[in-house]
Amino acid sequence: MSSRDVVVLSVGGLRFVTRPSTLQQFPESRLARMLSNEDREFKLVNGEFFVDRDGNLFSYIMDFLRTLQVSLPTDFSDFQRLQREAEFYELHALAELLGHEHLLKPRQEILEVRFFLQEAQAFFRIFGSCSSTVEALAEQITVFTDQQLGQSWNSPFPSQKPLVPLPLERPSHHDMVFQCGTDFSAGDQLVARYVSIKPDTRKLINGTNVLGLLVDTLLGDGFRLISTRTVWSGERVECYTLERMRRPAG
What we know:
Blueprint: E1 7-11, E2 14-18, H1 20-23, H2 30-34, E3 43-45, E4 48-51, H3 55-67, H4 79-88, H5 92-99, H6 101-104, E5 107-118, E6 121-128, H7 131-140, E7 141-149, E8 164-166, E9 169-172, E10 175-185, E11 189-197, H8 207-220, E12 224-232, E13 236-246
Parallel strand pairs: 1-4
Antiparallel strand pairs: 1-2, 3-4, 5-6, 5-13, 6-10, 7-8, 7-11, 9-10, 10-11, 12-13
Helix pairs in contact: 3-4, 4-5
GO cellular component, one term: endoplasmic reticulum
Pfam families: BTB_2
Keywords: Ion channel, Ion transport, Transport
């Protein structure tokens, strides 16, 4: 590339290389005016523009110019300092966004698993504050059913015949309901429901085992368990609450 294809900036001792078009995203900004030598704050030294400002914060400004989105680390706290830097460069759109600090901070995503065990059956209800997470989890979970005569049922493992997958109940976009275990239906038929949770390939019938696999899957997906409690509403229901941090849309 020729020297006219790229611009080199030295900001607070950190070196940045970019295209002129990136700095011209906002023509009214000082960075855009810098290219035409209209701002004496920026000194051209040995082919590099020298800027006596915070270089670490400037990396976030460069990211904004390249993507037109505000992407900050989950533990970022210097909103006011970064806003001052945006005002210095006269990037008014970025400064205004940073003024709404509460919109840029990562939000907690909550997932609640309710588990009810009744004799040989286990019932699950999962509620999530983020509908896309619940949708993705619903695609991982499959319930299979198997029916045999009661007197021939002597194993907790699936029979050799193909199992029939059942759709999960979805009361809303934010929750799902399913169950596993065994139950007698009309005609002395023993109905067994197995649960499989991808990427695990096992088909589990024991509710406690399903609960353990479900929690392990969520922990592997970035959630952390923050509380467990027993809900009494006529029946003993165990409630597991998990959370993870997620960034708001850019």
